[in-house]
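Why should sequence recovery work at all? Because a backbone constrains its sequence more than one might expect. Tight turns favour small or flexible residues, buried strands favour hydrophobic ones, and helices have their own preferences. The token representation captures these environments compactly. In the example below, the structure is given first.
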């Protein structure tokens, strides 16, 4: 596998971060609430064995400038449509997680050529009042970390500063954390339900679903709810010992599922 590379792309009045690694057939990774922090173990796992992973950062998330003019979900979906064109990943298969999976589904419903096959990890978007989604922002940062990954150390690249990190990078890392959490909250607070169930019949892409068995934000029961509503589900996988971001808790396992689904 080749090295881990990052670049910056001009976008509207600011910029977008773009991470890539590996060589071979290209696949897009559209991040969730933790963005694309540091040298992401899942991206490296996915990039093994002849894959090139391209991971753009949504506005406001790690590596991208703070968003402007993103007033509602529609604005985010339009921005995502611009983003995949700018990053040169339009039409590629995609692995999308959490809030990124929600945006990917919304975009696929109105722009069928946006993605190829899709692997979706714990998407936001559905709401069952009998089995509600938890609010990760109505708690302390420590509890939020526990809700995002079953193993708190799995999200260290986002939450922890490396030892002996230079002062300027400490500040940058802290700002990235703040902006990423703010952008996530903008997408899902107070209730992450925007009527996507009425549009899912338009998503014709083959979809593989992945969900952490220990997800404390979106109950594991939502794996079945998505499977019932999406018209072309080719697989559904419950990952033991994984939380909301299963690709952080079990990077090798999720990468193996994605490679099998997208090969």
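From this structural description, the recovered sequence reads:
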């Amino acid at each position: 596998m080749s090295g881990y590379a990052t670049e910056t792309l001009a976008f509207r009045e600011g910029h977008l971060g773009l991470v890539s690694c590996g060589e071979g057939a290209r696949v897009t990774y559209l991040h969730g609430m933790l963005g694309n922090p540091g040298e992401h173990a899942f991206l490296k796992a996915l990039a093994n064995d002849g894959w090139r992973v391209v991971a753009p950062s949504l506005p406001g998330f790690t590596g991208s400038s703070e968003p402007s003019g993103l007033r509602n979900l529609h604005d985010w979906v339009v921005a995502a449509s611009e983003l995949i064109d700018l990053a040169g990943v339009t039409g590629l298969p995609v692995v999308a997680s959490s809030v990124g999976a929600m945006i990917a589904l919304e975009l696929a419903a109105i722009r069928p050529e946006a993605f190829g096959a899709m692997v979706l990890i714990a998407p936001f978007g559905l709401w069952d009042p009998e089995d509600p989604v938890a609010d990760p922002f109505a708690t302390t940062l420590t509890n939020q970390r526990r809700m995002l990954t079953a193993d708190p150390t799995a999200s260290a690249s986002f939450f922890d500063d490396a030892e002996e990190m230079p002062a300027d990078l400490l500040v940058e890392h802290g700002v990235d954390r703040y902006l990423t959490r703010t952008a996530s909250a903008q997408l899902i607070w107070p209730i992450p339900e925007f009527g996507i169930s009425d549009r899912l019949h338009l998503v014709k892409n083959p979809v593989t679903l992945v969900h952490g068995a220990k997800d404390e934000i979106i109950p594991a029961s939502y794996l079945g709810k998505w499977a019932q509503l999406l018209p072309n589900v080719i697989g559904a996988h419950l990952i033991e010992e994984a939380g909301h971001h299963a690709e952080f808790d079990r990077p090798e396992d999720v990468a193996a599922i994605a490679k099998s689904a997208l090969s």
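A few observations help interpret the result. Residues 4-262 form a domain with the Rossmann fold fold (CATH 3.40.50.1820).
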